[in-house]
Design brief:
The protein is about 0% helix and about 55% strand. It has about 120 residues and is an all-beta fold.
Length: about 120
């Protein structure tokens, strides 16, 4: 299983970015895709997850601003980020795991840097 993330960059506060992560390999039994982020000096935190049936979960700080979606046929998960804030600056990692397991028991992408300037 491999995950390839893209879409990070530099944006001003209030702007938008869309992250993509394409999964390849034997991914059929891994039905939860998600995004996590880690800012300098901070621990990694959950941003959002989505199951193969479309059930979503968001951390409180991004609710109403970020939208996670997926294309099951293509094995791609997206993260649309609107109204970005400087505190959203972090390396964003995509994750693929089985339902009921932890993120660390799954697979990780290489990370894509999002920088939000004030």
């Amino acid at each position: 299983v491999q995950l390839q993330a893209s879409g990070g960059g530099l944006v001003r506060a209030g702007g938008s970015l869309k992250l993509s992560c394409a999964a390849s390999g034997s991914i059929f039994s891994f039905n939860v895709m998600g995004w996590y982020r880690q800012a300098p000096g901070n621990q990694r935190e959950l941003v959002a997850t989505i199951t193969s049936s479309g059930r979503t979960n968001y951390t409180d700080s991004v609710k109403g601003r970020f939208t996670i979606s997926r294309d099951n046929a293509r094995g791609i998960v997206y993260l649309q980020m609107n109204s970005l804030k400087p505190e959203d600056t972090a390396v964003y990692h995509c994750n693929l795991r089985r339902l009921g397991s932890t993120a660390d028991a799954g697979y990780w992408g290489q990370g894509t840097l999002v920088t939000v300037s004030s």
